[in-house]
Amino acid sequence: FAIYGFRAMEVANLRLEDIDWEHDQIIMFRVKGRGRGVYPLLPTVGNAIIRYLRQVRPQSLRREVFLTLKAPLRPISGAGLYSLISKRMLKIGIHTPHRGPHSLRHACAAHLVSEGFSLKEIGDHLGHRSSSATRIYAKVDLEGLREVATFDLGGLI
């Protein structure tokens, strides 16, 4: 989330075939009408996904990457991701007023703002349809999100 700025439902909908290991890419289908985006599969992300698939994910014929851990096995929901990530953030010492996947999305946007990307570029990266949805990130408190933006992705798995 913090690296790519994906929405919770985009991650929940991610399928095994959406990860192109040969070309080091993630194909992400945007949930709010922007089609699909192709993102580089960074080594830290790829390694975390491999670790999850080998050590955590229950064996299943389901094609979704992230599944519930208890029967009946089904794709994790957006609410399930919120709960999981919120608890994990607290456990690894990230204390922000707002937790969960969306705070990581904000952290991604804050990082892009601090790196000098334009609001149009940030909106395109986040899959926004209108610039008004991206303007909120121009007001982001960078200091308040720095802790979230720099956390270790491996700590979530």
TrEMBL record:
It comes from marine sediment metagenome. Gene3D superfamilies: Intergrase catalytic core. This is Tyr recombinase domain-containing protein. Keywords: DNA recombination, DNA-binding. Residues 1-150 form the Tyr recombinase domain. InterPro entries: DNA_brk_join_enz, Integrase-like_cat_sf, Integrase_catalytic, Tyrosine_recombinase_XerCD. GO terms for biological process: DNA integration; DNA recombination. The keyword Calcium does not apply. SUPFAM superfamilies: DNA breaking-rejoining enzymes (SSF56349). One of its GO terms (molecular function) is DNA binding. The lineage of its organism: unclassified sequences, metagenomes, ecological metagenomes.
